[in-house]
Amino acid sequence: MILCNGLSAKTSPIKGFSPRYDETKLDRSQSSPIVSYSKILKKSTPAVVAVTTKQVVRRLYPGGTDPLEDFLRRYYGLPRVNQPRVEEERVPAGIGSGVIVTPQGHTVTNAHVITDPRTGKPVEEVTVKLSNKKEYEAKIIGFDRSTDVAVLKIDSTDPLPHVTLANSDFMEVGDVVFAVGNPLGIGMTVTMGIISATKKSELGVLEEGGYENFIQTDAAINRGNSGGALLDAKGRLIGINTAIISQTGASIGIGLAIPVNIVKKVLSDLVRGGGLKRGFLGVSLEESPTVQGAIIDSVEPNSPAEQAGLQPRDVIVKAGDKSVASVNQLRVAISQTQPGTRMLVKALRNGRELDFYVTLDLREDSSASPIPGILLEPLSPAKRNEFEVPPTVRGIVVTKSTGKTQTFKEGVVLVEINGYPVSTVPEAEYRLKQGINRFYIWYRGKFTYLAYRVP
Fold first, then answer.
1. pLDDT digits (tens, 9 = 90+) for 332-383
2. Is 269 annotated as catalytic?
3. Is 226 one of the annotated active-site residues of the chain?
4. What is the pTM of this model?
5. Which of 2.30.42.60, 3.40.50.300, 2.60.40.10, 3.40.50.1010 is the CATH number of 374-454?
6. What are phi and psi of 432, to 5 degrees?
7. Catalytic pick among 97, 168, 226, 367
8. Which residues, at least 6 apart from 434, have a Cβ–Cβ distance to it below 8 Å?
9. Which residues of the chain are in CATH 2.40.10.10 domains?
C-alpha cells in the first residue's frame, strides 16, 4: 500500500533533527575570476523546493427545481427536492519556494507563503515539490510573523537533499550571491548578483514590531521566489528571500532576504517545541540622528536592565558580541539571545563607557502565544516538576500570566482546544479561532471545560 505522501506502509520516515552548519568565512583572496559556479550549485540547488498551498472554500450550490414547483411544495407542506447544498472544495491559494535544511525533511519558507493573508491563519494544505519532480505533503511545524519565517516538515524514507547553513554575520557588501527559487511558478531558477547592503531595517516589509534586519541583493527576485534560498559563493545558505522593493511588482534589482542567523533561532525554537523564546531586557528606547547607539528612554521596574544598573539616557553601543548602532540593531540582538543568558552590555554614560552584565528574561510575546496575556510552553520534565503536573496529563502549560487574562493562571494545562488535543504552541494556534473557544484544561489535579473569547 502506498500512502498519499508517497510512503510505503511498511516503512517509516527518518527521525531526528540534524541541520548542517559551516560558519567559516569566505576566501576573498582569489586572484583569477571564476568562470563557472555550476559544480557548487549542483550540490545546493536540489534542496530548494516549490511550495504550493491550498485552502478549503465552502461553496453554495442552488437547487435545480422550478420556482413555481418549489413554491407549491412549500405551500402544501411537501418535501422540497434538489435543495441548495454546501460543498467544500480545495482551491489553490498560493505558490512560493522553500529550502530543505535537514536530511529529515525540515524545510524553511516564509510565513506569508503558508498563511491566509486575510485571517493570518495557516492554510489547509501545503505541498512541497522537489527538483526531481517528487511531491510530498508537508506539515506546518510553526511560523513567526515578526520575522516572516515558517518551518515545514516533509517525511521521506530516504535522506533528502539539504543545504549547509552559513554565518550571515560574516557576509560583506560585494560578496557574490545566488537567489534560487520558483519565480512565477516556472520551476527551479538561479539568478546571480552581489550583496548590495546589510542590516537593512525600518522598510515596513514586516508587520509592526517585526524584526527587520535584511540582506539586500541585486540578484533578480520575483513573485514565487518568496521562501527560496540566498546562497553564497560556496553554496551555503545565508538568507531566505522574502520581498522585493518595486513600483511595478517586477524585479528592479532591490531584493531582500532574511539573514540565516535569524532563521536558525526560529528553526531551532519551533522544531524543539514550545514556540519562540526571545530575550527581554526591559527598556524603552529612542533613536537619535546624531548618536551611534540605542538611547534608553526609560527602564522597567524589576527588569533585567534595572537589576544590572542601566539608567535612562544611557546609550547602549554593544550587546554581547554585537555592535549596536541603532535601536533596531539592539532589538534584533536581544531577540536573538536565549532567555537566561548572561550578556555583557556596553553603554555610554556622560561620555564614559561602562560595562553591565544583564541576565535576560523571557519576553512576554516570545512563545507567539495565540492567547493574549499568557505564555505557553510544552510540558517538559522541568515544567511538570515546577507545576506538579502528573505524567498522565498531556498538553501545553501556562508558564506566565500578565494579569490581562484571569482565566488562565500559571500552571493551567491546555489539554484540548475545540475538541482537538494540543501538545505544541503552533498546534494551539492552528486550532484556535476568533470568538468563543472551548478549552479542556487541567489545573491542580482537576480536569474541567471552560469557554474563552479570543480577540
1. 999 888 888 899 999 999 989 999 999 988 765 555 467 777 778 888 788 8
2. no
3. yes
4. 0.74
5. 2.30.42.60
6. -75, 155
7. 226
8. 454, 455
9. 20-24+48-153, 164-270
